[in-house]
Amino acid sequence: MKASPADQQELLRLQSLDTRLQQLAHRLGALPQTAPLAELAKRDTAVRGTRAEAVGTLEDARAELKRLESDVATVEARIARDGDRLQHTSSVKDVTALESELASLARRRSDLEDQELVVMQRVEDAERQVAGVDEERASIASEVQQLEAERDEAAAGLTKERDAAVRDRDVVAGGVPADLLTFYEQRRARGAGIGAALLRQRTCQGCNMTLTGSDLETVRRAAADDVLLCPDCDRILVRTEESGI
Length: 245
Description:
Layout: H1 5-29, H2 34-87, H3 92-174, H4 178-190, E1 196-200, E2 203-204, H5 213-221, E3 228-229, E4 236-239
Helix pairs in contact: 1-3, 2-3
């Protein structure tokens, strides 16, 4: 392939911009806030699981407390009914039976009230646990909000740099002959993002290999408009006054 020395040297400008764009893409994908945010997301998932368990425990305790309260109300209604019957009966047999049942109901009520106290404590403990988990989630959310703000600010700056580099690249690429640009893109795809490299003091800056022997002689004998490839890394080798040949 043939291309003027000036067009070939434009590839170095294009390569510089492409390298810059690669660096910016890497930095955008590896912002310092990314890892902490991922860790916070894992923590929040774990805490949400803990909360679901705590809420389940609380709901069970509340349901049991409601059942006990209903049982107490039933017993108290029975006590009130039997007490009223006791006041309105003259039968000794009925009085004896009612007094016995009232004593039994009183014991039952006392037992239920003791159970209520135990379950009420369980409710309070579960409520505290849920509240503690909610506080932890709120703390995580606050950290996430702060980190996201920092990440977005950093990303905005990098995105601005990237957009400017893209515009500059478009301008430079627009000045490179189409066939040379296509060849450069092919080399860049195969060369890990590097399509053209400066030959400085007989050393390819793409692979840092120094040309010697027949390889160096081939470069020396090539016409100025010959598009050469590095014999070691297969990237376009751009010659300038720095090449030392």
